[in-house]
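The protein record quoted for completeness.
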Amino acid sequence: MLSILIPTYNYDCTDFVRELAMQAEGLHIDYEIIVCDDASPEVSTKERNRAINDRPRCRFVELAQNHGAAYCRNYLMSQAMYDNMLLLDSDLMPCRSDFLACFVQEIDGRSVICGTIKFRLPENKKEVEANLRYVYAAVREEHAAELRNRSPYSRFAGFGFLLPRCVAEQVRFCEDIVTYGHEDTLYGKMLNEAGIPVRYIDNPVYHDISDDSAHFLSKTEESLANALRHREKLRGYVRILDVQERVLRMGLQPMVRVLFALFETPLRRNLLSNHPRLRLFDLYKLGYICRLDHQMKRNKTF
């Protein structure tokens, strides 16, 4: 009845699988849980995850080569036994004891059903304010289902969603995207183009943030590079790309690049400080993507 599919990379998800299995058993349904490791280099983490094979109806699959999140999700869907598939990131934990039940009762055989996300942030307010990743998560990512349903395709995120086999076979993740960022953005676009209904329910998972400000900034830069590499596929679905293209059409990109060269250091100083500001983060992203666009075109490194 339900295949629970979890791609993972360097993350111990044994507690997550234990909780999901307990909830599934309580529903008295046919189910399976498949965890796919995308060639994690951390041997100790893989060894812990191998214990998943000891649980009934659960298995841990190890890929010999790293292929990226898109491939891993497609692979998991191809391995699923049941016609309803729940894809979940590995670094999560259900907020509710009826997490699976809420998804199961929404199954209609044609729609993609998405949950919501909550972040377990430190209770110390100063600690939260001092981490760019915490600040960004609290303001930009914790959205209720009602808000997400206003623009379901552009807000699509792959951390937790349920889909029927007919949709999984019709719309696959684009495996051209192998580095970090936007494979789920593109999937939302493809669902829209295929006319697949997408709706959100207030069924949250907890996500524990492990990134510090520097790591989050580095991942943001990688995501911006990925957006540029796949510009044609993502146009209209990544806001910073749309802004950069408007800047380019107006002939302002050279000016933005010069200003970014002048202010990159103070911008980074703020973003890595104890009081990072999201408005400055937006300016940093615009300057960075304008510079990167110029470099890619000059070096033809698309």
In short: The radius of gyration is 20 Å. Strands lie at 2-8, 31-37, 58-62, 84-88, 92-94, 112-119, 160-164, 198-207. Residues 14 and 49 are 6 Å apart (CA to CA).
